């Protein structure tokens, strides 16, 4: 009876965490800071937890690409897609070949780095937005250097992924992409495609716990729909602060747990 009760509590907690993750992703991002630790807390092994969480949250990224497809810079699609595919697959393959205990010890560092990246993404995004509307001489994007900078970022997405959106936008801006809508749409495309490659790799590798994945996918979708209704009414800086604090607290917990 106690075992049955614990099983039900696992599902209740997973449903709750998935709803929260969906709301967070719709409002500000960072849903993985909640859904990934939730997978770990119900007894899923670290690598399977990361794989299952990636698969569960991916459909929300696909809808974002569909919504932003009109803003994509077509000249850069080949280089962004190539880097996303190569990086996403290689990151996922390396993850599947990482020892569980090694990845578990990397988890707090990954969460902390992702939280810090998320924290500085706001000021940088504001600077990019300001730069895009100020008059200046625009230079064509440097395609080859962009590929070699995007490749390790997309590798990180395939391996873990949280907080990578800021890195993608920074790389694109560094090598000549200046229009804000183009930056955002290419960021979403690169993250979505890298994660799709990771999803396929995880599914083929048998790393997905489907009973948890489907529950998380459904309720993250519901949470995303709910969050989208309120996203415009919330202060973006407040939301970002909440996400960063959440990520840092969870990272601190895993440092304590691993210590």
Automatic annotation (TrEMBL):
How does the record say this protein sits in the membrane? Multi-pass membrane protein
**Can you tell which superkingdom this protein's organism belongs to?**
Bacteria
Coarsely, its chief localization is membrane
Q: Per the UniProt record, which residue ranges are transmembrane?
A: 12-36, 76-96, 103-125, 145-174, 186-203, 209-226, 238-256
- Keyword Transmembrane on entry: yes
Q: Which InterPro entries match?
A: TM_pro_TauE-like, TSUP
> Which keywords appear in this protein's UniProt record, sorted alphabetically?
Cell membrane, Membrane, Transmembrane, Transmembrane helix, Transport
Q: Where in the cell is it found?
A: Cell membrane
| GO CC annotations on file | plasma membrane
Q: Which Pfam families match?
A: TauE
* Family listed: Belongs to the 4-toluene sulfonate uptake permease (TSUP) (TC 2.A.102) family.
Know the name of this protein? Probable membrane transporter protein
Q: Which organism is it from?
A: Tunturiibacter gelidiferens
